[in-house]
Design brief:
CATH superfamily of one domain: P-loop containing nucleotide triphosphate hydrolases
Strand order of the largest sheet: 6-7-8-3-9-10
Order of helices and strands: EEEHEEHEHHHEHEHEEHHHH
Number of strands: 10
Distance between the termini: 49 Å
CATH topology of one domain: Rossmann fold
Oligomer: single chain
Shape: globular
Helix content: 25-40%
Length: 283
């Protein structure tokens, strides 16, 4: 079933001089089995939205339905352990999730916490580390000794080891080099296509949105400014301008050629399609 936000608001530090309403009565329905990008300016409310999905934050108004569980502002949530097994959240700053003595222990912690035996937890941890590109030479290293990009891989492995149905990723490729970022996004795409995982990605990288995502949610000042398919979002460059978002290189190129008088359809979303359209115009 889809993930639904129903008239959800969230206020930080309520009833204090520092009160701030980060979300304002949002309605949002996210399709199951899709890769959805959540984009918007810094401070728009993107991270606040996704932290509601496993009840790290609770709504101050409204309710959220996720994995057959309803989180209401009027009730204290129960059985959060089951919810957090099904909804895995990787923070924007991965060091917040790393605390064990070794990387293998850190990644195995989640499965063990949900009742998996020590032996099985270690096997799940090894498999997850392999998926994110970290071999056995990392097992006994301290998470604190890693680079930022490596910490991010370990944090993602820690979530993958629990095999959640919904994977929530806050800037998952930050700190990774271009090749590493491509590999990581390819992993998420595989988890979606092969294993049916629902993937939510908070990102500023429009190239990744264009290459890997199915739908786009734009958040603006605590409101949902738009929720459209990837194709609709990138076909109309004005939507990105309106949202103060820098388009991917291929969209910028398409717009530039259109302004120069070339008959390039707005449906062109790839280099191959752009070359084909140019050849057609010249022929």
């Amino acid at each position: 079933m889809p993930i639904e936000f129903k008239q959800v608001s969230h206020e930080y530090s309520p009833n204090t001089p520092f009160a701030y309403k980060a979300l304002n009565e949002i309605d949002l329905e996210l399709a199951e089995g899709k890769i959805t990008a959540i984009v918007g300016a810094t401070g728009s409310g993107k991270t606040t939205i996704v932290q509601h999905l496993n009840a790290l934050l609770l709504p101050t108004q409204g309710e959220i339905v996720v994995v057959d569980k309803t989180i209401k502002s009027t009730e204290k949530p129960k059985n959060l352990k089951a919810l957090r097994k099904q909804v895995g959240l990787v923070f924007q700053f991965p060091e917040y999730q790393l605390f064990e003595e070794t990387i293998l222990k850190d990644v195995a912690f989640g499965p063990k916490n949900f009742g998996v035996s020590e032996e099985d937890a270690q096997e799940k941890a090894k498999e997850a580390l392999k998926m994110v590109g970290l071999d056995e030479t990392f097992y006994e290293r301290s998470p604190l000794d890693l680079s930022g990009g490596q910490k991010r891989r370990v944090a993602i492995a820690g979530i993958l080891a629990m095999d959640p149905q919904v994977l929530v990723l806050d800037e998952p490729t930050a700190g990774l080099d271009p090749q590493g970022a491509k590999q990581m996004m390819g992993l998420f795409e595989m988890l979606n296509k092969k294993h049916g995982k629902t993937i939510l990605v908070v990102t500023h990288d429009m190239e990744h949105v264009l290459d890997y995502c199915d739908e786009v949610v734009v958040v603006e000042r605590g409101k949902i400014a738009m929720h459209v398919s990837k194709e609709e979002f990138f076909e109309d460059a004005s939507l990105m301008v309106k949202a103060n978002i820098n388009p991917p290189a291929i969209i910028r190129m398409r717009t530039m050629l259109q302004e120069k008088g070339f008959a390039i359809p707005n449906t062109v979303l790839s280099l191959e399609a752009l070359v084909k359209a140019l050849k057609k115009g010249v022929a």
